[in-house]
Design the sequence.
């Protein structure tokens, strides 16, 4: 909210330079976001938090300024005149839950013109346009007291005044010229024939005050905050008036605002006071009584607070001391502060004025807890490991495009009801798209060696509710490496976490043409493979792409224990073998025979080279394999290895589709 | 015969004195000791000699062989021999490791400072319900205090409308932990949060936050100040200071916004528009986080006796802290994942 320093000076003398006042207010809790010079005035723009409805009035702001400066306010309350009573018109409140009190003052014989300079400056420097000598007065009084007012052209009202709910589909044209269709959610002010205002929000065009208006009906009221909130939201409006009603207006100042407005209007536009009418009852508010214990306050802040220091600050803030001892006190909250409800509210008031900077800093003695394995620690380990294998970590958005994902065959997506843009309207079901787009972004920027991983959640719709699971996504382009690097990487990941029993099972997966499922204990914990040609084409990427996604929670659950394994101290002996394999056979078939036939002698194997040459039979591919033999208890003789190796060669050669070269 | 040995030895000595490099020594080895060497030629003469000659000549031949071999070894090891010079100015080989994202690194940094104080890390979910994100945090439905939290809602059938949402802050974790554990608790909780903000240099509809809170019988505001000052000095620099400004959050009371003395200009106040620091706008302070004592309504919503227990809580934006610490001026750089950006932070 904007306020003018000259306006504040109607309540108290301020000698402090504006810049220093900014600092003082900010440090006591009224954050000044901007300060601007306007002629001989200063315009402050402050943040009004939702608890301080009282700062929506100059009176409330002046109180805060007075507290900061240690001064007293000089408030001139006008004498409220309720006579003569307005005859011939009734005010009917249909439901006192919506409106507890309503006041009308009629002034006749006006000569409306432009406002005098001082009034124009007041409203303009508080961020409101100057309209005329009547409307500006209503705004001036609203700014001053916090109570919104509305002036109707009295001659345009027919019959009694009603405060009621709108009828279904009732039409309404506001002073902004826009037509709106109302519903039962809207509280309205109506005469016998028509709606004349959206109560507490905006007046109607049909009864607007302009330069030709001679007689006015000046409204002041107490509307229920929630009724105003619902009403203004249903028509998508947020006005100076509704903003205040929604946050509560003070009943105490309603008559002052109305009276002063009536007086100022007469003063500036001529006219005579014609009559007063009210409906409902202006509630009497009682001060909130709160007992506090000074030692509890001291314990809460970590600061020794004396009874006298607390009393002094609270009384500056407008609290009354009902009783006080060294240990406890009973304070009465000021009538303009409905946000003060319990002890902690008093703790806050005291500490913010005392100064947070005067409260000492100390470290809490937190009782240490045993560190249990958790997802955060696990993610840290995975991150380190993947980085060490040459991958870069990415952070991509969890919200993706429904259209795009549906095109890729995803179903049952979790939709966002109020997306910002259509391309970000569902929760992602996979980390794939985010990573592939990241690869594309980098390839397009002439980065050829592109590899990424991301640790983040994916989201699934359940029969009732949702499920989000942490996943590890890995993706890279062929410029970085081939599929078998990915396989090795997954192996390394599983080995690192001491997962011994696992296998790769061929299984089709979304977005991939060649893919394996990672099976641990009979359960698939993830997949790896080569991205489908069509998916690549849709993304506009030419290079081959590889992708793996592993369920982090399942991986964490499968984690084994590190334990020492004895190893052989005797040398391993190797023998090479060149094989041509028909394309309908798998390498796994070769591997199976070697492992099975070499029994305990088998240690490991390794591919030395692979090729597809002219000299090969059609449909065959060749490779050279190095087999390592080793025994834990003794050195092998070359004779026994030679005969074992020969036997394995013969066994392989006997298979259909396998040729030893 | 003996003469042949002597000539050979002289020849070898002459050659050796000319040899400087290892290659030349290797060549000498082949010349004098190899399969086709002169020494080997002499050995091949032995079978034709008489028995007596065989024994003497054989012995001398072996002595010479050992002598040559020894001399060659000595020369190889001698310090006088010149090492082959490598051109060390060729480029280094690139290391094969990748790069951790700066956001996850900063998250780990923040968590580890608080872990050092005894906090435990707990992660929370991102799809939350209305109760955990708002009501339990003293932000009632249809209350203006909810207006500052723009929120994405999940699309649901009419009766469940507004029930599920994407958390707009990490505070729901506070509710989940405090509802399930009995104090004392001290938790730090990082994670993604979502708000329907148009994307620009300082806004993103998804960003990361860290929530921290401690609840015990004797927790007080002074502890909050101390813990955060310890954090700021560990994270930014040991010379920074904090400024606690009273503020309002529904879930804490008293509440404060916290500013750190500007790490760029050292917190010098400067109102001249041309010279002022672009990070703190000449104010000398930069807002970094919000905090306060946990509101008793929040403790009570979690079934914690607010007469017995007190707590503090704070929340901070990881992107904001990272941008400030590393001088990054556009939040979008974090989510572009340009390798040239990621590589700058070798963490
Ligand atoms: Zn600065």
Sequence:
């Amino acid at each position: 909210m904007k306020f003018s320093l000259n306006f504040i000076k109607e309540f108290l003398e301020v000698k402090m330079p504006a810049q220093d006042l900014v600092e003082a207010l900010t440090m006591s809790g009224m954050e000044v976001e901007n300060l601007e010079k306007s002629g001989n005035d200063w315009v402050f723009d402050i943040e009004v938090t939702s608890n301080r409805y009282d700062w929506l009035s100059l009176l409330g702001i002046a109180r805060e300024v007075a507290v900061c400066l240690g001064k007293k306010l000089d408030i001139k309350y006008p004498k409220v005149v309720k006579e003569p009573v307005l005859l011939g018109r009734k005010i009917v409140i249909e439901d006192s839950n919506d409106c507890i009190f309503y006041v009308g003052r009629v002034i006749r014989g006006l000569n409306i013109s432009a406002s005098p300079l001082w009034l124009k400056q007041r409203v303009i420097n508080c961020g409101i346009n100057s309209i005329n000598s009547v409307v500006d007065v209503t705004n001036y009084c609203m700014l001053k007291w916090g109570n919104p007012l509305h002036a109707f052209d009295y001659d345009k009202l027919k019959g009694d005044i009603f405060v009621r709910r709108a009828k279904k589909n009732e039409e309404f044209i506001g002073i902004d010229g826009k037509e709106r269709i109302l519903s039962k959610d809207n509280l309205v002010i109506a005469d016998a024939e028509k709606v004349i205002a959206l109560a507490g929000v905006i007046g109607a065009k049909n009864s607007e005050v302009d330069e030709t208006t001679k007689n006015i009906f000046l409204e002041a009221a107490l509307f229920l905050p929630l009724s105003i909130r619902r009403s203004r939201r249903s028509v998508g409006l947020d006005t100076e008036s509704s903003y205040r009603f929604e946050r509560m207006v003070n009943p105490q100042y309603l008559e002052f605002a109305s009276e002063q407005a009536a007086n100022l209007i007469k003063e500036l536009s001529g006219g005579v006071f014609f009559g007063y009418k009210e409906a409902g009852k202006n509630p009497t508010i009682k001060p909130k009584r709160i007992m506090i214990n000074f030692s509890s306050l001291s314990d809460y802040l970590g600061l020794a607070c004396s009874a006298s220091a607390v009393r002094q600050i609270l009384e500056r803030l407008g609290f009354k001391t009902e009783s006080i001892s060294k240990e406890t006190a009973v304070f009465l909250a000021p009538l303009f502060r409905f946000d003060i409800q319990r002890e902690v509210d008093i703790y806050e008031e005291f500490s913010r004025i005392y100064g947070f900077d005067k409260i000492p800093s100390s470290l809490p003695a937190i009782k240490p807890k045993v560190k249990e394995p958790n997802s955060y620690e696990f993610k840290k380990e995975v991150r380190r490991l993947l980085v060490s294998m040459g991958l870069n970590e990415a952070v991509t958005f969890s919200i993706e495009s429904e259209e795009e994902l549906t095109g890729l065959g995803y179903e049952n997506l979790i939709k966002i009801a109020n997306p910002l843009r259509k391309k970000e309207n569902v929760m992602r079901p996979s980390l794939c798209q985010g990573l592939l787009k990241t690869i594309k972004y980098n390839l397009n920027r002439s980065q050829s060696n592109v590899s990424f991983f991301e640790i983040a959640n994916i989201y699934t719709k359940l029969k009732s509710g949702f499920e989000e699971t942490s996943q590890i996504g890995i993706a890279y382009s062929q410029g970085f490496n081939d599929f078998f690097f990915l396989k090795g990487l997954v192996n390394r990941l599983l080995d690192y976490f001491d997962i011994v029993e696992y296998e790769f099972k061929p299984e089709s997966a979304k977005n991939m043409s060649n893919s394996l499922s990672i099976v641990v204990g009979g359960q698939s914990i993830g997949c790896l493979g080569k991205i489908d040609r069509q998916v690549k084409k849709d993304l506009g990427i030419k290079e081959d792409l590889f992708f793996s996604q592993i369920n982090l929670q399942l991986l964490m659950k499968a984690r084994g224990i590190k334990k020492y394994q004895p190893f052989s101290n005797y040398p391993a002996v190797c023998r090479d073998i060149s094989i041509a394999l028909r394309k309908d056979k798998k390498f796994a078939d070769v591997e199976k025979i070697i492992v099975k036939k070499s029994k305990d002698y088998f240690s490991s194997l390794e591919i030395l080279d692979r090729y597809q040459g002219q000299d090969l039979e059609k449909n065959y591919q060749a490779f050279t394999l190095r087999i390592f033999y080793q025994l834990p208890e003794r050195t092998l003789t070359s004779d026994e290895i030679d005969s074992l190796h020969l036997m394995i060669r013969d066994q392989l050669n006997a298979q259909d589709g396998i040729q030893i070269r | 015969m003996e003469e042949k040995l002597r000539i050979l030895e002289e020849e070898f000595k002459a050659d050796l004195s000319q040899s400087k490099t290892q290659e030349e020594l290797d060549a000498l080895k082949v010349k004098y000791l190899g399969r086709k060497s002169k020494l080997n030629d002499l050995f091949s003469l032995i079978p034709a000699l008489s028995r007596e000659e065989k024994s003497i000549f054989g012995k001398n031949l072996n002595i010479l062989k050992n002598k040559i071999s020894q001399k060659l070894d000595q020369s190889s090891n001698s310090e006088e021999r010149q090492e082959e010079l490598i051109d060390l100015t060729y480029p280094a080989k690139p290391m094969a490791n990748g790069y951790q994202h700066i956001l996850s690194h900063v998250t780990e940094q923040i968590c580890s400072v608080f872990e050092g104080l005894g906090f435990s890390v707990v992660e929370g979910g991102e799809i939350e319900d209305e109760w955990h994100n708002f009501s339990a945090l003293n932000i009632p439905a249809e209350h203006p205090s909810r207006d500052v939290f723009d929120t994405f809602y999940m699309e649901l059938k009419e009766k469940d409308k507004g029930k599920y949402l994407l958390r707009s802050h990490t505070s729901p974790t506070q509710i989940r932990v405090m509802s399930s554990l009995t104090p004392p608790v001290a938790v730090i909780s990082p994670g993604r949060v979502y708000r329907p903000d148009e994307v620009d240099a300082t806004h993103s509809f998804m960003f990361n936050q860290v929530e921290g809170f401690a609840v015990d019988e004797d927790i007080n505001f002074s502890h909050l100040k101390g813990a955060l000052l310890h954090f700021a000095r560990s994270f930014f620099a040991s010379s920074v200071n904090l400024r606690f400004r009273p503020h309002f959050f529904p879930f804490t009371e008293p509440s404060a916004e916290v500013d750190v003395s500007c790490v760029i200009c050292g917190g010098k106040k400067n109102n001249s528009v041309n010279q002022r620091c672009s990070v703190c706008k000449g104010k000398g302070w930069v807002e970094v986080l919000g905090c306060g004592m946990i509101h008793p309504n929040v403790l009570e919503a979690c079934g914690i006796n607010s007469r017995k227990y007190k707590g503090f809580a704070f929340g901070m934006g990881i992107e904001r802290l990272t941008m400030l610490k590393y001088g990054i001026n556009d939040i979008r750089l974090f989510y572009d994942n340009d390798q040239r950006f990621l590589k700058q932070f070798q963490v």
Remarks:
- The mean pLDDT of chain B is 89.
- Residues 78 and 336 of chain B are 59 Å apart (CA to CA).
- Residues B 262, 264-265, 277, 279-280 surround zinc ion (CB under 6 Å).
